[in-house]
Amino acid sequence: MTARQALAATAPSLTVRVLRSVLLPLGLTWLAGTAVALFIANHFTEQAFDRAMLDDAYALSFNVQTGERGVEFLLSPREVDNVLFDQAEAVYFAVLRPDGSLLAGDAGLQAPAPPEGARYRFSDIDFQGKALRAVVLNHELPEPYQVVIAQTTHARAVLLERLLGYSLAPQLLLLALLASWLWRSIGRELRPLDALRRTLEKRHAHDLTAVPVARSSREMEQLGETLNALLERLAHSVLAQREFAGNVAHELRTPLAGIRALADYGLAQRDPEIWREQLLHIAASQARASHLVDQLLGLALADEGRTGLQREPLRLDKLAQEAVMRHLARADAQGVDLGAMGLDEEVTVQANAALVEGILDNLIDNALRYGGQTITVEVSGSTLGVADDGPGIAPAAQADLMQRWAQGQAGQKLGQGAGLGLAIVSRYAGLLGAELRFGQASDSGGLRVSVAFQPS
To answer: What share of the chain is helix, strand, coil (3-state, %, to 5)?
Structure first.
């Protein structure tokens, strides 16, 4: 069993999870509502039964009178049965004299008396081993006595059970119908997601083209757009890697072969001077190859940078000063005057430090290779530039030099570089949303390459 199959076997489906999330709180809410409804219904039902029992107590009390012989009960047992008749319940009664003795009814039937100031009182009692609901009705004038009515509670329990059944059964049926409807609806809504899964399962690992996404819902559209954006970034990254590998393999073949030839020639000689000369050539060839690799890596970084470029506030004046210091030793060795202008003011832009440093390094390197004897790094507002007093670049050739592997006449004549410097600068500027400009350094000629950043 694969890891994905094991995960599928243990993780519940989205349909089940949605159903659980919907039906469980809904069912609990319905049950709580049913409990509240039953409590309220039971309360009013109890009140109705109690009121009917109190009416029976009043009916009996109307047949009690006081005379010369004291309190008398006027109804016969048959008449009492007619007054208290109930098909469902067993009914008991007692009429008690002021001293508590039985005037009529069931002996031993007693219930808690009403509190002071109250006319009647309801209570639950046990009589003859039965649980009864009782009411005690007091009469104070002209002669005090009590009427006690008690009855069983079967009808109340039956009514409560029926209310419970009639309440729960429809709700459970509705809940089952809702679950069935949700199951079908959720399954129907998730079909595009399942289709997307099947499409991705069948796709080859090297196929990074966009996948078709059903526009069934906003969430599905967002998922499809996010997935296709990821595939686009991956395709771009893979293409950049392939291009980088191909460029490295192609461009390093010649310098590496030259280094090997120089080493073989040196090993075949016995003169130390020839060894030294060959080692110097090897060192120079290695430096050119290393520079080429750095440029290729820079170009690959520019391609990768499209996918997620982090920007932050940067001081252009500080970056320009640091770039001058990095190249100062090389400029001195070549007899080139390398300086800077506009560093006395703080200039801050939103950019990426690695890309800005790459722009400066490539512009200064190009100026040192093909420029004249004076190179100036300039910071003017949010514009960063490098000017030299060399031969410059014809306007017709400027666009071509921003393409990979394109070299001007000076580069071809000197046999230096690989035609990547300005291509890297152009790519970096595009990633930063900056504008790359070419112009004359002065009225007498030269070249100024500048990059205008957006003000922060």
So the answer is: 55, 20, 25
Question: What tens digit of pLDDT does each residue of 327-357 get?
Answer: 887 788 888 899 999 998 899 999 888 788 8
Strand partners, 134: 123, 150
pLDDT of residue 285: 67
Range of the domain at 329: 309-452
Q: How many domains does the chain have?
A: 2
**Residue 403 to residue 399: CA distance in whole angstroms:** 7
In a domain, 144, yes or no: yes
User: Measured at the alpha carbon of residue 431, what is the angle toward residues 425 and 436, in degrees to the nearest 5?
Assistant: 45
Do 134 and 121 form a contact (C-beta atoms < 8 A)? no
Same domain, 330 and 182: no
- pTM for this model (two decimals): 0.42
Show which of 172, 189, 206 is a domain's final residue: 189
Torsion of Cα atoms, 106 then 112 then 113 then 119, to 10°: -90
- Check residue 404 and give its pLDDT: 46
